[in-house]
Amino acid sequence: MTFIERVWFGSGGAAAVARAALWPASAVFGIVTGARRALYDAGLLRTETAVLPCLSVGNLTVGGTGKTPVSAWLAQRLSANARVAIVLRGYGGDEAEVHRRLNPAIPVVALADRVTAVHMAKAAHASLVVLDDAYQHRRVSRVADVVLLSVEQLLRPRRLLPAGPWRERLGAARSASLIVLTRKSASAADVRTALAVVANALPGLPTAVVHLAPRTLELANGRGSKQASALEGQRVLAIAAIGEPGLFRDQLSALGANVTLAPFRDHHAFGPDDVRDLLALAGDGMAVCTLKDVVKLAPLWPASRELWYLSQQVTVEQGGEQIDRLCQHLLERVPPATAG
User: Pseudo-torsion of CA 264, 270, 271, 276, nearest 10°?
Assistant: First the structure.
């Protein structure tokens, strides 16, 4: 675990003391975020009308929900019938590059000012925009909001920042158009429990479940691939600079790998010293990272050593009709003259 994960999820006395010390800050954070949402709901904070129909894909936590692959998957689905662009803040630069790799034909606009970014998407001849990580960024209007909730996260204590990873309380998702539960290594029983939590907290909201399933192992240099099942019995160094590195470790472990985790903070900027240390930790085992990390690690990694990344596949397990209905609603808002 990273230091912050030990504070958020640790079971020892030191972690409990740290969370207790952070509780006042979490309470203030909850008041501020709740007040901000209320001001937008009341129209006292301005939302600007977007020049294109927009779909927001977001979450209530700082990571771990699979937001980038799900956003990319939805953009790909919509691109069959519209000229789609992806707009995101682009913090750290890695997520924008991941989108470009996943959907090379879809324009990506990375800009903190999303209102201007949507104008840029229109100038690039887009007719529909997917806003990646925009549920809390309400300055730009949207046709629909998809909120992702991780099954694994829902089954833990839901503590607000900085004592936990939650940006907002679960009830903040009441204004969503669709709740999508994502799972990486959670069991079917875990999914049933998470669905019950959502039904109790957010009654009546349409809900779907998707599995972020391992697909293939790809070499960082693009010169080879293997089935994910090739990890079985292998000694693996899991390199993860994502919201919850432990979920990546769990995915690899579920594939039968003997995993040592090398966790970093989300959006960590890798340097030569990191690569040297990682090579030493990997030894003669496999070094495996996420797609989000490989875009930063690959240029630094020596050609003499293999670096693999695990590609993810979005598989709908429940609520496919809800996703279809949402996509149709969005496409109906695209003017016929600009449809794809």
Answer: 60
Q: Which two tokens stand for residue 116?
A: 């201007």
pLDDT tens-digit map of 13-24: 999 999 999 999
In 3D space, the residue among 127, 140, 130, 122 whose CA is nearest the CA of residue 103 turns out to be 130
Model confidence pLDDT, tens digit, residues 229-280 = 999 999 999 999 998 898 899 999 999 999 999 999 888 999 999 999 999 9
Rounded CA separation 27/20 (Å): 11
Distance CA(225)–CA(197), nearest Å, equals 39
Classify burial at 49, counting beta carbons within 10 Å of its beta carbon; exposed 0-12, middle 13-18, buried 19 or more: exposed
Nearest 5°: the CA angle 186, 187, 193 is 90
Using alpha carbons, select from 302, 295, 307 the residue that is nearest to residue 276: 302
233: how many CB neighbours lie within 10 A of its CB? 10
- Does residue 186 register a pLDDT over 80? yes
E strands within the chain?
54-59, 84-88, 108-110, 128-132, 144-150, 178-183, 207-219, 225-227, 235-240, 258-263, 286-290, 308-318
Interatomic CA distance for residues 214 and 221, integer angstroms: 19
